[in-house]
Structure formats: structure tokens, C-alpha cells
Amino acid sequence: MAPRVFELVRSMDYMCFEGVFEDENFRKAKTYLSAYNSSYSISANELKSGVLMYFLTKAQSFWIENSHYIDESSRVDHFLEIEFKTLLYLKDNLESFIDKLRQIIK
Fold first, then answer.
1. Which residues, including other chains, have CB under 8 Å from residue 42's CB and lie 6 or more apart?
2. Residue 5: exposed, middle, or buried by beta-carbon count in 10 A (0-12, 13-18, 19+)?
3. Which of 9, 23, 56, 62 has the fewest CB atoms below 10 angstroms from its CB?
4. For residues 45, 83, 56 and 47, what is the CA-based torsion angle, rounded to 10 degrees?
5. What are the tens digits of pLDDT across the range 85-101?
6. Which residues contact 69 (CB under 8 A, 6 or more apart)?
7. Alpha helix locations (H) across the chain?
8. What is the pLDDT of residue 62?
9. Residue of 5, 35, 92, 42 whose CA lies nearest to 13
């Protein structure tokens, strides 16, 4: 239901980063994005839009808190630290993160 680039960025976040943004994680992202781009070409602007959409959606989401407090479920608790680290990183490094990803698909 979401644009393909949103799902691309979301899956890349969970598979390559999980709240850690070091060189090794960017190497994983390079492998992932390069493979995707070789099969389904994506433009730098489309990638940027997807990252922005993903960040804004993540920043406004309460799915972990809702599941924990409203649904009384602890099955998502392990995501809380990952979500927090990701939001802190992207808050301070959004443009450089986008630039690093855009360089991969050039």
C-alpha cells in the first residue's frame, strides 16, 4: 500500500541498520540498495523522498508504545531502543544519511 521506496527504506533499516549507523552497516546498505537498483532502477530523488517519508512516519508513530501499554504486549519491547537510536541519528544526520544512500545508486 505504501510507495515502493518507503518499503525499500523500511526493510533496509531493519536489515542493515537496526539503530547502528557505522561503516559496516552502510556496507550492508550498499549491497542491499545496489542489488535492488540493478533490478528495479530507482532515482536519487525517489530515494530521498522515501527516506524523508520513512523518517517522518517513524517520528510520528506510537506503534511500540501502543502495543506495550494499550495492548499490554511486550513482544515489541526490543524495538524500542532501536527506534530511539534511529530517530536520534536521523534527527541529527538526515541529510548526510540521504547523501550516503544516494551515492550508492549513482
1. 5, 8, 36, 105
2. buried
3. 23
4. 10
5. 999 999 999 999 999 99
6. none
7. 4-12, 23-39, 44-60, 63-65, 78-105
8. 87
9. 5
Alpha carbon distance 93, 88 (integer Å): 9
Q: What angle do CA 36, 40, 45 make, to 5 degrees?
A: 90
- Is residue 4 classed as helix, strand or coil in its secondary structure? helix
Residue pointed to by grid coordinates 522515501? 50
Q: What pLDDT score does 68 carry?
A: 86
For cell 544512500, the residue is 101
d(CA 89, CA 91): 5
pLDDT in tens, 13-65: 999 999 999 999 999 999 999 999 999 999 999 999 999 999 999 999 988 88
